[in-house]
Design a protein that fits this description.
Largest sheet: 10 strands, antiparallel
Number of strands: 29
Radius of gyration: 29 Å
Strand content: 5-15%
Helix content: 25-40%
Oligomer: single chain
Structural class: alpha+beta
Distance between the termini: 87 Å
Length: about 750
């Protein structure tokens, strides 16, 4: 006994040394990003993590009973641990539990606010162990704590040193199938120019537009497809009855778009009829459907990947939103929101999320730079990415109140003078933005809006506090008018003004607090009827608007023209031609080829129906566009601009009842090969159901292979479609020319 007592002080002195006896030399460059999709068990020395009822425990010598985890990347070096029974390793508190499902921000809607700050307890950062060796530690993102023996520990030095042991028998993590086999081999034509299609007008992340609570479904989600494309009831209400904007826009029982028909429903806060089925993954009974449903995601990253495998090589990703639509839906308590409705709030969030999407796709492919989705910031970088067989992505902005430059300044808002605009151009150029629309639907400090009618005309009134400003004194009729033409939708709201930047007659700064009552004050004017004729916006670029254009030219940025109203469009061409600078018309305007003469591009679409008496009619727009470009000395690439997730519809089916006036033959059959011959496509699956392009049309971007194959079956020859596959080269040549011109314009 006395001997033991004499020994105790010695043991006490040795305890710190014994506690650190498992420390090993640090291993440099230990891989933390390359584990996505791997099947592993967790071992700590001689103990294994074993699943139990609602929890996990560390058991000595229990290799046969160890949990078998599929490591599913949530970000670079961050994983979900998904076990053989389709349960997750979770730490919502200091306790570590075994859960059948994860919570996300859509399960955290309180008081109409989606909790953007929510972090799932199922996300674990894989880190090299602080104890060294080829071992790891798991850092829980939600709690900023590490996995320990009996739960979480707050000190990194107490984290367990874990070995990831190869295992078999893991569950398959939920994901949508590609329904394509092969790998990209064709990256250039025989003449050395780039091979590939550009989608010159795209919106990948509209779920973050409009305050982040009107458009449903994400292009990706850290927690996987069950959280990216879940049931939309949380956003659109039971049976979609809160989806007023989709109901009106889609013509679901209201094909005239007449707002007065739903005024009673707006007062009640929900539609009086069922709008759409809300179920998402894995059944998808009613959406995605770009042909019929405008408020649901149609560019999930796996669908985009399938399009890339068909030849899509360049994507112009525009951040877009609309403050008035957001303020109306959120202000009336109909839709939830993530943040305020200001345009640039959503734009900033979308830009950040596009970079996050690149990281997410990289993570699925084993590490930084290994994915197929690459944001590019120069034409040289775009060429390098496309030549490597990947998808180059250019960041752009398409919104009304660009840089917070409202026509009627907000209280406390910026002074949108030339110095401010220069600073903002520098800021967003630094963030990677290379393409801009000076305006979108509504008037701003740079130029009047695009002249759209109906509810957008009404929205412009409430966004600015100015009466509608349309006139029949318009530019020459041979100039393409775009959206700026036709009738005045609300005659009693139209009072053209001589000075575009005059003070507004109405103060709508409180519109977001009480939008419906504010609108009802003008119910007589709203119900006052329309005036038929050819009208246009009574105004053009302001001085600061022209400074914006010159600032973009000085930086070699791409000027997007096709939301400019008539007089601004005319003035833009005067400036562009004066400085020999190219521009983009991604809603199809080219002004009799003048845009091509400058080295710019415009978009073209494929026809819907085939005509046996007129073979090739569905691709004639492509071949005729190529001929116009060539006649102006340009490169014969013809971009497409699908405007998906942008309330623009999509190519409908040929074989639906009443779709075409002539009998349709030669439907899509499977398998078929890509235009390049390097990928074979099977019939696309949408979770648990098959998609029939012949009767459903291009319901999401993943049906691009079918769209192209359908066109090939009508084309007189393969050469008819070649201009589409030269369009990425054409867009990049425009960008190169813009950068070259910028060097002489102060860039």
């Amino acid at each position: 006994m006395h001997s033991l007592l004499r020994t105790l002080p010695t043991l006490a002195l040795l305890t710190p040394l014994l506690a650190g006896c498992d420390r090993e030399p640090v291993v440099e460059g230990l891989d933390v990003e390359g584990w996505s999709g791997q099947c592993v068990s967790l071992r700590q020395d001689k103990r294994w993590l074993v699943p139990g009822e609602g929890s996990y425990t560390w058991e000595r010598g229990a290799e046969d009973q160890a949990a078998r985890f599929r490591l599913q990347a949530a970000d670079l070096g961050v994983y979900l641990l998904f076990d053989e029974a389709e349960q997750y390793l979770v730490a919502n508190t200091e306790l570590v539990t075994r859960e059948p499902a994860l919570q996300s921000e859509l399960s955290r809607i309180v008081g109409g606010v989606i909790d953007e700050t929510f972090i799932s307890g199922g996300e674990w950062a894989l880190e090299p162990s602080s104890r060294g060796g080829e071992r790891y530690q798991l850092h829980n993102r939600r709690n900023d704590a590490w996995l320990g023996r009996d739960g979480l520990v707050m000190e990194e030095g107490d984290a367990l040193a874990i070995t990831l042991e190869p295992a078999v028998g893991c569950a398959v993590f939920p994901e949508l199938s590609l329904d394509a086999a092969g790998s990209i081999t064709k990256t250039t034509f025989d003449d050395g120019t780039l091979y590939g299609i550009v989608d010159a007008h795209s919106h990948l992340l509209s779920n973050l537009s409009f305050g982040g609570g009107i458009y449903h479904g994400a292009a990706f989600h850290r927690l996987g497809v069950p959280h990216a494309l879940p049931d939309c009831e949380a956003i659109h209400g039971p049976a979609g009855r809160h989806d007023f904007f989709g109901y009106i826009y889609d013509g679901s029982g209201n094909s005239t778009g007449d707002l007065t028909a739903v005024l009673g429903d707006l007062v009640e806060g929900e539609l009086s009829v069922d709008n759409h089925l809300t179920a998402g993954y894995p059944t998808f009974p009613d959406w995605p459907n770009a042909v019929k449903r405008s408020t649901h995601q149609v560019q999930y990253y796996r669908w985009l990947e399938r399009a890339w495998m068909a030849g899509l090589r360049l994507e112009i990703q525009h951040a877009t939103t609309n403050a008035i639509i957001c303020n109306f839906m959120v202000g009336e308590g109909i839709a939830p929101s993530r943040y305020d409705c200001e345009d640039m709030t959503a734009v900033d969030r979308i830009i950040d999320e596009t970079w996050a999407m690149q990281r997410y796709i990289d993570a699925q492919h084993g590490g930084e730079g290994k994915g197929w989705f690459r944001i590019v910031q120069s034409p040289a970088e775009a060429r390098e990415v496309i030549a490597a067989g990947k998808l180059a992505v250019v960041l752009g902005i398409e919104t009304s109140d660009l840089f917070d430059c409202h026509l009627t300044p907000r209280p406390g808002g910026p002074v949108c003078d030339e110095a401010y605009v220069e600073a903002k151009l520098d800021e967003y150029y630094e963030r990677g933005v290379r393409a801009l629309f000076p305006n979108h639907k509504y008037d701003n400090r740079f130029t009047p809006g695009d002249g759209s009618g109906d509810f957008l005309e009404l929205g412009n009134f409430f966004n600015s506090g100015h009466w509608t400003n349309k006139t029949d004194s318009c530019p020459e009729p041979d100039m393409p008018r775009g959206f700026d033409g036709g009738a005045i939708s609300f005659t009693a709201l139209n009072f053209p003004r001589d000075v575009y930047l005059s003070d507004p007659p109405h103060d709508f700064t409180g519109f977001h607090d009480d939008p419906l009552d504010t609108a009802i004050e003008f119910v007589q004017e709203i119900l006052g009827g329309s005036t038929e004729g050819q009208f246009c916006q009574n105004g053009a670029f302001t001085d600061v608007g022209e400074a914006l254009l010159m600032g973009m030219m000085a930086r070699g940025m791409i000027i997007e023209l096709d939301h400019l109203p008539a007089w601004s469009y005319k003035r833009a061409f005067e400036l562009l031609e004066e400085h020999d600078y190219p521009a983009a018309g991604t809603h199809g305007r080219h002004w009799d080829g003048r845009i091509y003469a400058l080295g710019g591009i415009s978009t073209v679409g494929l026809g819907r129906c085939h005509d046996a008496a007129d073979p090739g009619s569905s691709v004639r727009g492509v071949t005729e566009s190529a001929a116009r470009i060539t006649a102006q000395g340009g490169y014969p690439g013809t971009p497409m601009g699908f405007d998906l997730n942008g309330f623009a519809g999509s190519r409908g089916p040929r074989f639906a009842e009443g779709a075409c006036s002539t009998e349709q033959v030669n439907p899509i059959t499977y398998p078929f090969e890509s235009y390049a011959g390097d990928v074979t496509f099977a019939q696309p699956q949408l979770g648990e159901r098959a998609v029939d392009f012949n009767t459903e049309g291009m319901i999401h971007i993943g049906l691009l292979p079918e769209l192209l194959e359908d066109a090939r079956r009508d084309a007189a020859s393969e050469a008819d479609l070649e201009p589409l596959f030269r369009s990425a080269e054409a867009w990049i040549r425009m960008w190169e020319l813009a950068e070259a011109r910028s060097e002489t314009l102060g860039g």
